[in-house]
Each structure stands twice: as C-alpha cells, then as structure tokens.
Recover the amino acids of this structure.
C-alpha cells in the first residue's frame, strides 16, 4: 500500500490507534474444518432496532450462503478514524459502511476495491437511483453500492397550521417566512415566545441547497471551499433575516432541545426541515403529534433538498473478495434491500424496491422520495471536515449578529482552505 496514503490523518492516528488497541478484532480466517469463509462487516452505531434488523438480514444471507459467515461489528465511536487507521494498518474489515461525505477521499486513495468487475447484468445496476449511484463513482469506476438514503422535507404541525388559519404548506421560501410569522406565538403574553414558526438548523448540510439555488458553489474543482461569493450568500441571507429581524425562527439551543426533530415534537417549532429518520422518532416519542410532510419550499424558484446516502464498500486488501461481494450484492440486491428498508427506517436506493414498498404513495415519505430527482448529494470534496466545521462555526456567529454574513463566510472559507492546503 502506498506510503503516502492518509498522510493527512497523521495528527489523529495516535488517538485512533489507542482506540484500535482496545477494540481491535483481527480479520477472521477460513475455518478449514468446515470449509466456511468468515468475513467481517463493520458499521457505526445505530438504534437497537436498526441493529437487530441488520443482524436479521445478515442471518438470512447466511442461510442462503452456508459457506459464508459474517461477523458484524459496530464501531460506536470515531468511526471514520478507526476505519482509516485500520486501512493504514491493513486490518480493515472486508465490507464496511461509507458515508457519501467521506467517499471522495477514500475513493481517491486506492484503498477500496472497484466493484465494476463483479457486477453482472442480472444484478440490475440501472435499477439504482442514478444520483445515488453516481455519488460513489470515481474516475468512471464504482466503489460503493448505496444501501439506503434520505432527502430532506418540510415537517409541519397540522394543529398549529389549523389554529393559525393556514390551509396548506408553503410552496416557496417567501411563503414559509409569511407562515412562520403567523405561527410564532407568545401564548402567555410574557414577552417570551412559546412556539416559533420555524426551527432552523444552521449547518452546511442543511443550507447547501440554498447556496446552489442562486448559482453558488460549495467547492471548486480542487476541492477548495468556494461558498463565500455573492451568489451563494443570497441563499443564506434570508436565514439571517428570518432569525434576527422577524424572530420567527429558532435554533435548537434557543429552546433547550437537542435536535430539530425534538424542537418540532415538543411544540417549540411548528415547522422544521428533517429527513426520513425523523418519522419513526416522532411517531415513537410523540405519538399524539399530528404532523404531515411536504417538499421543501422552492428557493429562488428552484426545487432543492439534500441527499444523504451510505454505501457498502469492499476493502481492497480483503483476502475474501468473492465472499465480500456476495454479501454486498445481497444487501444491496432487491431481496436484501426490501428486507432492510421495508420497516421504514430508511428509503431504498433501488427504484423497484421503492415501488414494491409503495413509498411514492406514502403520505409521509412521498415528499422525501420526490427529492431524489433534484436534490444535492451531501459531498464537499476530499476534505469535508475542514469545510463543514468552519462553515458551521462562522455561520452561527453570523446568525447571532457577531459579524456580517460576508465576513463570516469569507473567514470560514479562508480558514477551511488554509487547513486543506496543509492537509493536501
């Protein structure tokens, strides 16, 4: 393996090695006595219900492939640090989760096995949503197969809408701001807002489509931050105006909650923009909440949302690539994917599975499914942390009025690019 691979994580390798030292599990070998090949599948921590579901799907795979056994490992903390460190040490799992955000760097480093040579016509590659599949392509090769995805949609409180005399969800961002004013309430007349019209999430992962709606870009062709330009700032200024001048939106910390979903569920915000993950959370945690979803209101007459997706990828150093491919092809095949996404935890990346499950007609999920046709995949080049963290920190500062939006974005862009230059 090339010595130059992952030179940018030199600062974190020591920490990650200590994690691996405590939790390292070596690659399992073939059990010669039974002629069974054992491979390792690693992913990050999820809800207990999701973990049980994946274990059940893997068990079904093993029943159909009696010569393969799968060791499923959950990496609870510092997932990507652990994976990168194991790749450097040639001790990575055979198959593992890879988020689209992290994919560009790993795909460029010759540590993932290209899957093109394994894919046969009967696998039905065209059945995948093209935008999702393209997220895991690099230099015209496929390095991952998306296992599920979510877009973002507008979640709105039906009772709050009725009380405010609003008959339908907003279709444009201007309409959303008008509705948010009507929905913002001080029910106790004590000068404190009890319900904000809109719950804002001031992170690049939730703001990128607004930047692109006015022709702005997140990165340039060299993976450098490029969001501090006048076109991109137009999409962000309305966020500040609504928060600072109209006072009809709030951030989660403003109302003592931990997420947009919680802000919505507790009634602190009548509208939020969230993903598919919010649906089971809201149903389980706030069963009496009467809510609906709609596509995100248009920004500058442009439909927009974000696409979040995760793939199964194969370690290029795996000793059991044939078995690893059998697992990937089952988990992302029509049967395995229907089992995995059938409970509603995530949306299927195959069009045929989505049709079988009826998600295009699902009253809560149809808006999320529609977004895959025009959404922006959540990727910001080879050095996402530098760009994302600097944007988030400075954008919140601008929302709080500590600096102008232009100053904040220029500072975020400059700091991100200085860091990227040092890492590249």
């Amino acid at each position: 393996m090339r010595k130059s691979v992952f030179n940018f994580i030199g600062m974190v390798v020591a920490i990650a090695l200590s994690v691996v030292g405590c939790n390292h599990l070596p690659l399992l070998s073939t059990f010669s006595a039974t002629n069974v090949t054992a491979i390792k599948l690693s992913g990050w921590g999820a809800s207990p219900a999701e973990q049980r579901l994946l274990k059940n799907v893997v068990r079904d795979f093993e029943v159909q492939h009696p010569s393969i056994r799968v060791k499923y490992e959950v990496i609870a903390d510092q997932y990507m640090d652990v994976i990168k460190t194991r790749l450097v040490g040639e001790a990575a799992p055979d198959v593992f989760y890879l988020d689209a955000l992290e994919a560009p760097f790993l795909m460029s480093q010759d540590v993932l096995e290209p899957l093109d040579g394994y894919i046969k016509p009967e696998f039905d590659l065209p059945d995948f949503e093209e935008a999702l599949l393209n997220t895991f392509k690099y230099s015209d090769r496929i390095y991952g197969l998306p296992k599920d995805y979510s877009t973002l949609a507008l979640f709105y409180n039906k009772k709050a809408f009725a009380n405010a005399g609003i008959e339908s969800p907003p279709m444009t961002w201007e309409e959303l701001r008008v509705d948010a004013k009507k929905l913002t309430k001080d029910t106790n007349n004590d000068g404190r807002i009890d319900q904000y019209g809109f719950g804002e999430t001031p992170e690049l992962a939730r703001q990128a489509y607004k930047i692109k709606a006015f022709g702005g870009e997140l990165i340039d062709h060299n993976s450098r931050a490029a969001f501090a330009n006048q076109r991109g700032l137009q999409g962000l200024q309305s966020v500040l105006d609504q928060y600072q001048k109209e006072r009809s939106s709030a951030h989660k910390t403003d109302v003592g909650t931990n997420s947009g979903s919680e802000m919505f569920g507790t009634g602190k915000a009548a509208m939020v923009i969230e993903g598919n993950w919010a649906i089971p959370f809201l149903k389980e945690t706030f069963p009496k909440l009467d809510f609906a979803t709609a596509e995100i209101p248009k920004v500058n007459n442009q439909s927009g949302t974000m696409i979040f997706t995760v793939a199964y990828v194969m370690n290029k150093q795996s000793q059991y690539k044939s078995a690893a491919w059998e697992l990937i092809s089952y988990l992302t095949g029509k049967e395995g994917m229907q089992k995995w996404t059938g409970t509603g935890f995530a949306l299927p990346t195959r069009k045929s599975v989505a049709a079988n499950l009826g998600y295009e007609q699902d009253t809560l999920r149809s808006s999320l499914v529609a977004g895959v046709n025009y959404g922006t995949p959540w990727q910001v080049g080879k050095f996402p942390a530098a760009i994302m963290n600097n944007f988030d920190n400075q954008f919140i500062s601008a929302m709080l009025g500590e600096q102008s939006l232009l100053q904040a974005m220029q500072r975020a862009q400059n700091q991100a690019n200085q860091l990227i230059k040092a890492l590249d």
Summary: The longest helix spans residues 405-423. The two ends are 18 Å apart (CA to CA). The chain has two domains: 7-150+310-377, 154-306+381-423.
